[in-house]
């Protein structure tokens, strides 16, 4: 019978083939023989990829209870923070990341996840909401205090309605060029823009492509796949790679693999992925995209028979560290 270390290697091999359930079972057998922080960390990653947040969280906590070396401890804390963020517990995710930064202040993944946290009170856990409440004294008055009466005057700046922003001709032209099949809907789309198209965030625009109806998505797919790779460095230089856009990009890749919208799509996509993988938050965003799409892309590339290209795709899309 294999020992715990041999089972760990077997589990890693199953994980590398994206057989996450099989890998989790192998790690389970290894843990029964000799539990270790590394085994708990690896199995937690399996459960993360499967979306099994409860078991993933338990594994990170069990691993942290053991005497882990700093490198493994940081990895466990990072994965715990990913789980907490995914379950909308941003407060505890932040606390977990702060603990990781106390061990490794320069850890790139931890810093990027920390910067990506968005605190939405409506989604925070109830106990965190209660603990953050500050009592505000309320005083009853018979009339509006003198210093506030000017606010009620009709000509006060805060009460003057502002004109709706105008949509530039350039914006209309670019929308028509990008979505030639949707000209009838174009005025409605343009009316929702709050400022000229060219002044809007590039990331905002790319994310908007994902909301196109299915019968019009081909235009969006073709558009993102034909963007020069350097474009992604410019778009994501500050904000980092957006998970929603990355998911859309993978959809576009699969569409291209089964249609003729782009010649030599596999080389074009690879160059774009190389560019995106050098940007902030790529590794984190990769945790939240459709694993089915990632698996399907790898199968398509493997089917081309180009082993070197497959290795490059695999290196970029492989999640286990």
UniProtKB/TrEMBL annotation:
Recite the UniProt keywords alphabetically.
Repeat, TPR repeat
The protein's superkingdom reads: Eukaryota
- On whether Repeat is a keyword of this UniProt record, the answer is yes
A Pfam family found in this protein is: RPAP3_C
Positions of TPR repeats: 37-70
Q: Record's Gene3D superfamilies? A: Tetratricopeptide repeat domain (1.25.40.10)
Instruction: Report what the protein is called.
Output: RNA polymerase II-associated protein 3
Source organism = Hyphopichia burtonii NRRL Y-1933
């Amino acid at each position: 019978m294999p020992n715990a270390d041999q089972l760990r290697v077997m589990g890693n091999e199953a994980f590398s083939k994206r057989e996450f359930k099989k890998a989790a079972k192998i790690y389970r057998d290894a843990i029964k023989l000799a539990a270790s922080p590394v085994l708990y960390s690896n199995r937690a990653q399996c459960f993360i990829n499967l979306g099994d947040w409860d078991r993933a969280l338990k594994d990170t906590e069990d691993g942290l209870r053991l005497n882990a070396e700093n490198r493994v401890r940081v990895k466990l804390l990072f994965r715990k923070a990913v789980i907490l963020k995914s379950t909308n517990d941003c407060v505890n995710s932040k606390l977990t990341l702060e603990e990781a930064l106390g061990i490794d202040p320069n850890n790139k993944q931890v810093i990027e996840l920390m910067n990506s946290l968005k605190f939405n009170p409506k989604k925070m856990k109830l106990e965190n909401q209660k603990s953050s409440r500050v009592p505000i004294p309320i005083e009853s008055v018979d009339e509006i205090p003198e210093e506030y009466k000017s606010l009620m005057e009709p000509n006060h700046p805060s009460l003057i309605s502002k004109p709706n922003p105008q949509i530039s001709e350039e914006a209309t032209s670019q929308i028509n060029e990008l979505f030639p099949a949707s000209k009838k809907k174009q005025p409605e789309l343009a009316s929702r823009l709050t400022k000229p198209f060219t002044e809007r965030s590039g990331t905002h625009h790319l994310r908007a492509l994902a909301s196109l109806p299915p019968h019009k998505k081909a235009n969006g797919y073709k558009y993102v796949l034909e963007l020069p790779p350097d474009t992604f460095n410019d778009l994501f230089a500050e904000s980092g790679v957006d998970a929603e856009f990355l998911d859309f990009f993978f959809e576009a890749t699969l569409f291209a693999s089964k249609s003729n919208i782009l010649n030599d799509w596999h080389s074009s996509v690879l160059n774009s992925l190389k560019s995106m993988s050098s940007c902030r938050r790529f590794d984190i965003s990769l945790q939240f995209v459709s694993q089915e799409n990632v698996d399907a892309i790898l199968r398509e590339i493997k089917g081309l028979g180009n082993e070197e290209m497959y290795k490059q795709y695999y290196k970029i899309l492989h999640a286990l560290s």
